[in-house]
From TrEMBL:
<feature type="binding site">
    <location>
        <position position="101"/>
    </location>
    <ligand>
        <name>alpha-D-glucose 1-phosphate</name>
    </ligand>
</feature>
<keyword id="KW-0067">ATP-binding</keyword>
<keyword id="KW-0547">Nucleotide-binding</keyword>
<dbReference type="GO" id="GO:0005978">
    <property type="term" value="P:glycogen biosynthetic process"/>
</dbReference>
<feature type="site" description="Could play a key role in the communication between the regulatory and the substrate sites">
    <location>
        <position position="100"/>
    </location>
</feature>
<comment type="pathway">
    <text>Glycan biosynthesis; glycogen biosynthesis.</text>
</comment>
<comment type="function">
    <text>Involved in the biosynthesis of ADP-glucose, a building block required for the elongation reactions to produce glycogen. Catalyzes the reaction between ATP and alpha-D-glucose 1-phosphate (G1P) to produce pyrophosphate and ADP-Glc.</text>
</comment>
<protein>
    <recommendedName>
        <fullName>Glucose-1-phosphate adenylyltransferase</fullName>
        <ecNumber>2.7.7.27</ecNumber>
    </recommendedName>
</protein>
<feature type="site" description="Could play a key role in the communication between the regulatory and the substrate sites">
    <location>
        <position position="61"/>
    </location>
</feature>
<keyword id="KW-0119">Carbohydrate metabolism</keyword>
<dbReference type="InterPro" id="IPR005836">
    <property type="entry name" value="ADP_Glu_pyroP_CS"/>
</dbReference>
<feature type="binding site">
    <location>
        <position position="192"/>
    </location>
    <ligand>
        <name>alpha-D-glucose 1-phosphate</name>
    </ligand>
</feature>
<dbReference type="InterPro" id="IPR005835">
    <property type="entry name" value="NTP_transferase_dom"/>
</dbReference>
<feature type="domain" description="Nucleotidyl transferase">
    <location>
        <begin position="9"/>
        <end position="262"/>
    </location>
</feature>
<dbReference type="InterPro" id="IPR029044">
    <property type="entry name" value="Nucleotide-diphossugar_trans"/>
</dbReference>
<dbReference type="InterPro" id="IPR023049">
    <property type="entry name" value="GlgC_bac"/>
</dbReference>
<dbReference type="Pfam" id="PF24894">
    <property type="entry name" value="Hexapep_GlmU"/>
</dbReference>
Length: 400
């Protein structure tokens, strides 16, 4: 018999991440490598265990193989438990029926049986594709104090940015009276972070009601939250004042990696009180040859550096050859930049090869904003070949 849990977390990790282009051609967005040794999903999983939440359902759908293998039994995050722990929850056939998750709310609806095994008082709904550190226990405490049906984490953004987000309009006590999805003329700057705490009895009621509505898009932001506000439920905004970043675009992914290279980095990966856990790749120590130059960069285990690395992130198993230059770039696991090649303002996919004297991208100072060159996973850029600034390469290029 399963023991009763005060709280269960449901982590939505099935998104395609189409705005990341070739980087999500073979993997789901939460499985994208980040910051030298992590995956994006490591931050949410680490937040859970650091917050005292030991029961997590991970809802996968798009390209789940690598993500499922990476999470495994949950051991790196102390989620390999007999009572609770982590469970992978893909769509499945129920009786003679089966369907893909139709939206974020439908994904939770299809997995209500998993939640009910633990008979929780509260359910935390999370996304697997944001970079941040957050103590969910403080948000749950706020939820309890307010006797709320639903609490939504919000981040104050600039008025210019507000139209890109779901915006919460609140009374002085932070009770939400109106939710606006990407409003053209926002009344508030309280943007939803996609982090929700629900009282389970209320969530179960509204999920069931939503599923019975044939016109619903089965989405939390578009359907569940507005229905609760309109139903005069106690829905509150919980203000978060830390670092949070949606890395759903090439530019935001690049920026988030580069921000970690600054001395005053907005997110501290070295804080022993709030560690970010990850599956260890078990690579040997990194090696820097005589004559190698490494400046303001992250160079992780298993890398071999013979050339120059400046303001860049080189993931485990990476290789930078003699007289090669990597500048303002991200080189994902197992990628090789061979002798004399130049990589600037770029992202190089996993296990790709930038051959001798090839060139990818252009100096950041000479590019328009966002003109980041991207080479997809397991590709070859041939000897002497050039990949232009802003280009997204999804096939081998052996000859010009």
């Amino acid at each position: 018999m399963r023991s009763k849990k005060d709280c269960v977390a449901m982590l939505l990790a099935g998104g395609q991440g189409s705005r990341l282009g070739v980087l999500t051609k073979k993997v789901a967005k939460p499985a994208i490598p980040f910051s030298g040794k992590y995956r994006i999903i490591d931050f949410t999983l680490s937040n859970c265990i650091n917050s005292g939440i030991d029961t997590v359902g991970v809802l996968t759908q798009y390209q789940p193989l690598e993500l499922n293998a990476y999470i495994g039994n949950g051991q790196p995050w102390d989620l390999d438990r007999n009572d609770g722990g982590v469970a992978i929850l893909p769509p499945y056939v129920r009786g003679k029926e089966g369907e893909w998750y139709k939206g974020t709310a439908n994904a939770i609806y299809q997995n209500m049986q998993f939640i009910e095994r633990y008979d929780p008082e509260y359910v935390v709904i999370l996304s697997g594709d944001h970079i941040y550190k957050m103590d969910y226990s403080e948000m749950i405490r706020f939820h309890k104090e307010k006797k709320a049906a639903c609490t939504i984490a919000v981040l104050n953004v600039s008025l210019e940015e507000a139209s890109r987000f779901g915006i919460m309009n609140t009374y002085e006590d932070n009770r939400i009276y109106e939710f606006e999805e990407k409003p053209a003329h926002p009344k508030s700057t309280k943007a939803s972070m996609g982090v929700y705490v629900f009282s389970w009895d209320k969530l179960r009621f509204y999920l069931t009601k939503d599923e019975e509505n044939p016109t619903s898009s089965n989405d939390f932001g578009k359907d569940i939250i507005p229905a609760m506000v309109e139903g005069d439920e106690s829905v509150y905004a919980y203000e978060f004042d830390g670092y949070w970043k949606d890395v759903g675009t090439i530019e935001s992914l690049w920026e988030a990696n580069m921000e970690l290279l600054e001395e005053d980095s907005p997110i501290n990966l070295h804080d022993p009180s709030w560690r970010i856990y990850a599956r260890n790749p078990n690579e040997p120590p990194h090696y820097a040859a005589d004559g190698a130059v490494i400046k303001k960069s992250m160079v992780t285990e298993g890398t071999q550096i013979y050339g120059t690395v400046e303001h860049s992130v080189i993931f485990y198993g990476g290789y930078v050859g003699k007289d090669a230059i990597v500048r303002d770039s991200i080189v994902l696991p197992g990628a090789r930049v061979e002798e004399g090649a130049v990589v600037e303002y770029s992202i190089i996919g996993q296990d790709s090869i930038i051959s001798r004297n090839a060139a990818v991208g252009q100096r950041k100072e000479e590019c328009p904003k966002g003109a980041i060159a991207v080479v997809g996973d397991e590709l070859v850029v041939g000897e002497g070949v050039a990949v232009e600034a802003g280009e997204m390469l999804d096939a081998n290029r052996i000859n010009d």
